[in-house]
Amino acid sequence: MKKSLISIRDFTKEEILHILETAKEFEQNPVQDFLTGKVIASLFFEPSTRTRLSFETAVNRLGARVIGFSDASNTSQSKGETLKDTIKMVNNYVDMIIMRHPLEGSSRYASEVADVPVVNAGDGANQHPSQTLLDLYSILQTQGTLDGLTINMVGDLKYGRTTHSLLQAMSHFKTKFVFTAPEELKMPKEYKEFLDSKGIEYIETASLEEHLNSCDILYMTRVQQERFTDPIEYERVKDCYSLNAQMLANVKDNMKILHPLPRVNEISQDVDETPYAYYFKQAENGLYVRMAIISYLLGHRPLR
Ligand code: CP
């Protein structure tokens, strides 16, 4: 039976740890062409740099070929074709579909229409599970463990799908959360209720300085301009936080700054030169993790 990755909750803790172990193997040996003859679709209805290019590099490194688009205006969607019909067609050509789409739930819908595995590369403000797996890999690489950490999520916790997926994944481990956001961008109630149901601690604050020196991971996020319906509201919150190198004077030695990228003004460039910046290596890790996801879903790195 086919397996898709639509929400991080589709993977058990055992599967998550298996993907992280497999990603380590690919980091050590990133050219393995056991998918020769396979074709994988990369359907991006929304802009992307890292997710699309790292998935497509992963496909190439595994020996498969990519078809697809990065601009849906060049497809028959512009003539009125439905997502359902598009997926039914592409399904006939490929062994897997990787899809980013602005509508929440679109990837789940695609997986119900398709016979081949579907990977959600981001659906609106909902989920971005491959980003979560590379975030977990980055946390494990920098902290040596996923257990007992304090993760401070900063910025747009309302629309930032990467924070939603990450908190669900970290619920498998003994995590404490700090949610740093202005009132307008607070973590939605449903995710806090999820943490309550698991007995996981979280603190909410609007001050970036308040919990900066006590966290192990500072997870910065961009204010998601594309999700706002009111441009005046975006203008009011767009520069709510701006981290600079001076602010890091008293942080924990092991603290690492993650960011799914792209960044706008929330991390000053002087932070890039500090030992705490990990976001560019985090993006590189996406390649190894996405090689692991593709291999696993196509049955080449099964759970033992
Ligand atoms: N992190 C992330 O999803 O980046 P892109 O939008 O560039 O793919």
Overview features:
304 residues; alpha/beta; Rossmann fold; 9 helices; binds phosphoric acid mono(formamide)ester
Short description:
With 304 residues, the protein is α/β, with parallel strands linked by helices. The protein has nine helices and nine strands.
* Number of structurally distinct domains: 2
Strand residue content: 5-15%
Estimate the mean pLDDT confidence.
Answer: 96
Structural class: alpha/beta
What ligand molecules are bound, each kind once? phosphoric acid mono(formamide)ester
Q: Bin the helical content.
A: 25-40%
- Please compute the radius of gyration using only Cα atoms: 19 Å
Overall geometry comes to globular
State the major sheet: 5 strands, parallel
Quaternary state reads single chain
Q: At the fourth CATH level, what is the homologous superfamily of the largest domain?
A: Aspartate/ornithine carbamoyltransferase
What features would you describe in this structure?
The mean pLDDT is 96. The chain has 2 domains: 8-127 and 286-297, Rossmann fold; 129-283, Aspartate/ornithine carbamoyltransferase (Rossmann fold, 3-Layer(aba) Sandwich). Helix 8 (231-237) links the parallel strand 8 and strand 9 (256-258). The chain has 9 helices and 9 strands. By secondary structure, the chain is of the alpha/beta class. The structure holds phosphoric acid mono(formamide)ester (CP). Residues 48-51, 122, 131, 260-262 line the site of phosphoric acid mono(formamide)ester (CP).
